[in-house]
Design goal:
8 strands, globular, Rossmann fold
């Protein structure tokens, strides 16, 4: 896992951790909810030979502090965290890459400071209301449970779920439920499971609720920078037919990498296809 050795202070006072490597034009990688930088392990070594690669942790994730206020984890607030990182590094313009819920964050960043964004690459992520498309009919149920679970129960529930994730057979169960793709290696899944054990449940709950309410649908037709969308046909969190392809139709000139076997762990499973498409896209940028 990339070690975050820098930080900025968010508007609510929370310390947000980030790291930077390489040199060249800025390429900022934004994680999904409950994830950290291990999802980018297959890409950072190559990308950092040509770009200044910035990675960061959301509040309540990895090396960042738990959010001090629920308002600190809305999509606008997370987009502001990203802007503060750019400011801290003296970066005027950047290419923003977002995985999963990170797609919502980078779209909101474009809404708020488009002049600082050179291109957008949403990967396996939604552009609005996370639970409308995630996990089929269970999505809205899970969103409702997160919203209404009493705060004292959050940490025991999350820790109990983490314990289940560590049981023998849990990987096979996750594959059966299509939470993990068939090509995700056990070591890669273990990094996700280990990180799940250190996330801050109240922060995650507030962030998930915010993602469930956020929409960038009105913004999509207004985007005027190059966009590459990565979508997976077998992704149960951001199904290509309802998310990636829909986004592609609404953004003029957007490019689409459609992965017929793509799942939500395609950054692990299909790094060659994704890496080649991203490299070609970046090579065409003005």
């Amino acid at each position: 896992m990339i070690t975050h050795d820098r930080h900025v202070t968010a508007a609510d006072g929370t310390r947000v951790a980030y790291s930077v490597c390489g040199s060249g034009p800025a390429l900022v990688l934004t994680n999904g909810i409950t994830t950290s930088t291990y999802f980018w392990r297959e890409f950072v070594p190559e990308w950092s030979t040509r770009f200044t690669v910035v990675t960061w942790d959301f509040k309540g994730h990895g090396a960042s502090e738990p959010a001090r206020t629920p308002g600190g984890v809305t999509m606008p607030a997370l987009a502001d965290d990203l802007r503060r990182i750019l400011d801290d590094l003296g970066i005027d313009r950047a290419i923003l890459v977002g995985f999963s819920m990170g797609s919502q964050v980078i779209l909101e960043a474009y809404r708020r400071y488009p002049e600082r964004i050179r291109a957008l690459i949403p990967i396996l992520g939604p552009y609005e209301r996370l639970f409308d498309t995630a996990l089929g009919p269970l999505g809205k149920l899970i969103g409702g449970l997160l919203r209404h679970t009493p705060r004292p129960l959050l940490t025991p529930i999350f820790r109990g779920f983490h314990g289940v994730m560590r049981l023998p057979g849990s990987v096979a169960l996750g594959r059966g439920l299509r939470l993990y793709g068939p090509g995700a290696a056990p070591a890669q899944i273990r990094r996700f499971v280990d990180h799940f054990g250190v996330i801050d449940p109240p922060t995650i709950r507030a962030m998930a609720v915010a993602a469930g309410e956020h929409s960038a649908r009105d913004l999509l037709p207004e985007i005027q920078v190059p966009v590459l969308i990565v979508a997976g046909a077998r992704d149960v969190f951001a199904p290509a037919a309802r998310v990636g392809e829909s986004m592609h139709r609404q953004i003029a000139g957007a490019e689409l990498l459609y992965l017929p076997a793509g799942t939500h762990t395609s950054l692990f499973e299909h790094p060659r296809e994704i890496g080649a498409a991203v490299a070609a896209f970046l090579g065409r940028l003005p």
